[in-house]
Write a structure and sequence with these properties.
Blueprint: E1 5-11, E2 16-19, E3 25-35, E4 38-50, H1 51-60, E5 66-79, E6 85-100
Parallel strand pairs: 4-6
Antiparallel strand pairs: 1-3, 1-5, 2-3, 3-4, 5-6
Length: 117
């Protein structure tokens, strides 16, 4: 079964990065997007990326950047202390394309076309 989604969104926060026990970079951030039927309030979803993509996202992305994210939709389920079942969705990013950034992380003369995505 194919699980692939594309989303055009704005970062709502600067990316946060950590390295897991195997030394693999993991970067996550929230993005805001709008649906055609809900013009006023944005929807939010968490994006997580790994390895080299995580390192690049941490270096070049920032709050307010506009991106196109390609990834797979992932659902997390858990049970609270009160026995209630909760769930949330996130996108596990496979590719991120810059649409608009403020240039943070770019070297002198480097353009978004030169970023190794």
């Amino acid at each position: 079964m194919l699980n692939q989604c594309f989303i055009f969104a704005n970062l709502g926060e600067d990316p946060r990065t950590f390295y897991n026990a195997e030394g693999l970079a993991v970067t996550s951030f929230n993005v805001a997007f709008q649906t055609s039927h809900k013009k006023k309030d944005p929807n939010w979803i968490r994006v997580t990326c790994f390895s080299k993509l995580a390192e690049i996202a941490a270096q070049y992305l920032h709050k307010g950047a506009r991106v196109c994210i390609c990834g797979s939709l992932d659902q997390n389920k858990w049970t609270t202390e009160n026995g209630e079942t909760r769930n949330t969705f996130q996108i596990l990013a496979h590719d991120i394309q810059f649409i608009k950034t403020d240039g943070r992380g770019f070297k002198e003369g480097e353009t978004k076309e030169e970023v190794p995505f």
